[in-house]
TrEMBL record:
Biological source species: Stachybotrys elegans
Domain of life from the UniProt record: Eukaryota
Record keywords, A-Z: Aminotransferase, Pyridoxal phosphate, Transferase
A Pfam family hit: Aminotran_1_2
Alphabetical list of InterPro entries matching this protein: Aminotransferase_I/II_large, NHTrfase_class1_PyrdxlP-BS, PyrdxlP-dep_Trfase, PyrdxlP-dep_Trfase_major, PyrdxlP-dep_Trfase_small
Coiled-coil segments: none
Family classification: Belongs to the class-I pyridoxal-phosphate-dependent aminotransferase family.
Protein name per UniProt: Aspartate aminotransferase
Residue ranges occupied by any Aminotransferase class I/classII large domain in the UniProt entry: 59-367
An annotated Gene Ontology molecular function: pyridoxal phosphate binding
Amino acid sequence: MNYQRMAIEKEAPEEVGSVIKCNLSESAISDQTLESLNITIPPDMVLTYTEHKGSHGIRSVVAQAAGGAICADDVLVTAGASTSLFIVKSAILGPQDHVIVTRPNYATNLEIPRSVGCDITVIDLDFESQYRLPLDLVAASIRPGVTKLISICSPNNPTGTTCTAAEVRSLASLARDNGCYLLVDETYSELRYPSQRAGEDDIIPSAAGLGSHVISVGSMSKAYGVPGIRIGWLVNTDARLQEKFLAAKEQISISGSVLDEYCAERILARRAELLPATIANMQKRRDRVERWIAEESEWLDWVKPDAGVMCFVKIKKQPAGGISSFYERLLQRHGVYIGRGGWFERDDSFFRLGYGWPTWEELEQGLAGISKALRE
């Protein structure tokens, strides 16, 4: 494995430090506490190994949320979605394999195949097409007998856009017909907004239910505001493949953290209560950003997100002094931090704006700071 640090990690807010006053770079809701989630850790809890596949309670909730297409045995609990992605790709890919990855994407989805040494075909999702999945380009990129994996992120990070149910089904059929796996990063699936353009048939609870060659990945970090407990999962209905993924997990960490899984169980027990309130709050925040984008239409544009708590904003004309100067004065003068396009292998005329993590006051201050920095 040829590991290289990613720009998004080098420039993560926790790496930048106290100069940040308004953090609009995050892609999650605000960080929660044990108190805010009504969790008390029993003082007599035994700090032992957990079941290697992960808590049956967590796995059962994940399976139930998938609408009956999968069962608890199809779920492997991991230390966050990032670990799920590592397990999947390191377990099934070798240097001789060809991988198709859509972009923009969560950086790890691109970097792990590079670390393995795979031959990669990148399919760019374009702003002009509203980041729609170009199925024809994916199909044309498949190399029979060589392509091992097709990898997408839906709902997408950083755009917040989603593939339709028909697109995901078509992709699953395409992968099956060509003897390759389909990996769907579904980390933001629990943060979907009510759709104005689609009916119930437009939502697939979990792509893993579409066939034993399909793998989906999820996490608690984004929708529940608990990245610190490191709970994610991967889902697949092929028992032999799941055994391989379990072997990888055991060689990495044996099991998960008993404390993390305890907290996760308590949070997921309140899933039906927590998620609707979160989505309603995030929808109000998205509406505020939409009004701001409209006010700044001379400078900015976007594709309105279908899910998640972030959007990918396009700078339409050159700010004073150029793009690099804009980012520098935004942080240094206004204390506002956003995720530049380079984090996602895009031009820095795009930036990820996270509206779920800051307080309302910080969000307002951050948007005002961006407006000022564009013009200064």
